[in-house]
Amino acid sequence: MATIKDIANRLGVSVSTVSKGLNGASDISDELRQMVLDTAVEMGYSTKRSRKKENRKLCIFIENMSYESIDEFGYDIVLGFKQNAFRHKWNVEIIPVTPAFQDEERYDTFLLKNGFCGALLLGFALHDPWMKQLEKTTMPTVLLDNFISNNPNVCYIGTDNYEGIALAVSHLLTLGHRSIAFLNGSLYSMVTDQRQEAFENAMKAAELPLNKDQVAFGYYVADSAKYHVPGFLAAGATAIVCGNDLIAQGVIEECVRRGFSVPEDISVIGFDDIPVAAAFDPPLTTIRQERNEIGRCAYISLNSLINHIPISKTLLRPKLIVRESTERVKE
Amino acid sequence: MATIKDIANRLGVSVSTVSKGLNGASDISDELRQMVLDTAVEMGYSTKRSRKKENRKLCIFIENMSYESIDEFGYDIVLGFKQNAFRHKWNVEIIPVTPAFQDEERYDTFLLKNGFCGALLLGFALHDPWMKQLEKTTMPTVLLDNFISNNPNVCYIGTDNYEGIALAVSHLLTLGHRSIAFLNGSLYSMVTDQRQEAFENAMKAAELPLNKDQVAFGYYVADSAKYHVPGFLAAGATAIVCGNDLIAQGVIEECVRRGFSVPEDISVIGFDDIPVAAAFDPPLTTIRQERNEIGRCAYISLNSLINHIPISKTLLRPKLIVRESTERVKE
Question: Could you tell me if B242 lies within 8 Å of chain A, comparing CB atoms?
Answer without folding.
Answer: no
